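Reply to dn_fold:

You asked what the input looked like. This is it:
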Amino acid sequence: MKSLPKVFKNVKGFTLIELLVVIGILAILLSIVLIAINPARQFGQANDTKRRSAVTQILNAVGAYTAENKGQLPTQITTLDQEISAAGANLCAVLVPNYIPALPTDPVLNTADIDSTCPAGYATGYHIIKDASNRVTVSAPNAEITTPINITR
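and this is what came back:
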């Protein structure tokens, strides 16, 4: 049997233990990175940002309507908490397209925004209410991270 050349006699490789330790450290670092990124939380935050923007758009449209109508709120807004929908506070025909291009819908509904055709049975997933001093609150009750999202003006 031939012996190995002198060059290979002093070369050492990694042991199985060393390789397992390195793989273990990499696995721990990867899990820390995944926890820090947390994709589900990122999607929840993105959806809540869309909800906050939609609530602000609806309030701005109600404010523009009120300003143009000498301080009168739309009659569909009552002191009862109602969903902005065909069955609840039906604001579509009042606000779209003069004050808002389309009524936004909650991301959880997975539907398109409500345009000026105001389809029968539409629903936005957002709620609206006014208090005794005519301050309007629009809310997104399906918020994922910040539950619920409420903006009052």
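The chain has one domain: 37-152.
Hope that clears it up.
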